[in-house]
Specification:
Layout lengths: L3 H14 L23 H14 L5 E7 L1 E5 L2 E5 L8 H4 L1 E2 H8 L6 E7 L18 H6 L13 E6 L9 E2 L4 E2 H4 L1 H5 L9 E2 H19 L6 E3 L7 E3 L6 E10 H12 L2 E4 L8 E10 H9 L4 E6 L2 E6 L17 E4 L10 H7 L5 E5 L1 E4 L2 E3 L4 E5 L5 E6 L4 E3 L4 E4 L2 E5 L20 E3 L5 E4 L2 E4 L6 H5 L2 E3 L2
Parallel strand pairs: 1-5, 5-6, 13-16, 17-18, 18-21, 19-22, 20-23, 21-24, 22-25, 23-26, 24-27, 25-28, 27-29
Antiparallel strand pairs: 2-3, 3-4, 6-10, 7-8, 9-11, 12-14, 15-16
Amino acid sequence: MKYAAADANEVGAAFRASGVAPRNVVVLTSDTAQADRQGTRANFLRALSGVRERAVAGDKVVVFFAGHGIAKEGQQYLLPSDTQADLFEETALAVRTVNKALEGTQAAELLFLLDACRNDPTAGRGDNDAALTDGLARGLRPILAKPVDRPAVVATLLACDVGQRAYEDPEAGHGAFTVYLPPARGGQATAGGPVKLSALASYVNKEVTAWGGRSRKEQRPRLENPDGGDMLILTPPPEPLVSVAFVNHTLAQVVDLVSQQYGAAIVLGKGVDPTLSVTGRLENQPLGTVLKVLVAAHDRTVRKQAGVFLIESAGAGDPARPDQPPTGPADLPVAADGPGDCRAIMEAVNRVGPGSTIRIKAGVYRESVVLQKPVSLVGDGDREQVVMEQVGQTVLTVSGESVTIRRLTLRQLAPPGDPAPPAEGTDWRAAYPTRVSSQAVVTATDCRFTTNRRVYHASQVKKGVRHAN
């Protein structure tokens, strides 16, 4: 199992971006160095205890779990990251223990999102089947404190049906179930309006079942809702609501942290210095507003196009954009230092229409490239000779369309002052010079993705990038 941590981070980011206060989103994973945020049994129980203590009448609680789930000697278990086979009873997390930890919680609604039927690591091999049992499907039923105005609702949305196994999608870098959870919560389940449990379950069931058909795997998500009431999960805002506190951070660090926490696409325009010092504190404000406030002192502005937030010099506009948008495909050469129709990749992108090919001559192109239409970026030579590079910024952002890239090196460098960066040339699965929306796919042939950053975020590159070589 490779992607449980990426799944948890993705779901946490989706809830924060939808307006849930960051202090109310607790993410526990196996890939963090912060001891109280690791996915251990003790931390999980501590988080559940915190829910019981803090929840008040009318609250809604959502518990997401991605990992191993098994049945043993008639009991159902979730397996935290520190589960030990020889100390199973002491380190595994029995479903009955979860129920007891949440018993008496004042919340009116409780939803479990459970992706816990992937395999059984205690059986000696990590690929042994651990099909969903009826006991696990129906077992999460803590007794909530009775609301005064309506019956409590406790429901579980499971990644698969009884007798099936939940799979991971290597192309997306997530469990197949999680791939369709944040987009649905973001509005696709109900055309951008309030997201209710029934609509979310229907959307996820349809999309994951279709994915299973394409992948020749049987997986149909299942909703257990014996109380029968529907549940309003959330009403997504027009753009992510953000809470930040920065003191003398570089602009590159600000963009990196906000992008990671809220799953947003943010890029720096040409000529914007990533080392600018940023200080500011804002609570639960739209992302665009937050970015504008943070960069205003440096005479920078922010504009949004096709879901991407672009930070640029005030008054810079977009001089490369023609008065009339291009319509037909074209074949346009780009050269950083020499003959070519354009000297910057984004200049070429703005000049061509869908279906075009942009041929990039040898050189180092220090810019953030944002693609919002289907085009091909093709290096003219060996991939080591055609380099797209940025300091502390996403090199390539693909929003809403599928693109092809060939014979390119995409390299992200640590910003100045970032301590102890590891050696450059890490495997592409550990790098993150690209950001790909859930509706897009990047097909990469003979490309190299590298970073020398201190912290790696595997899902950022893995998601949406399909290697054809």
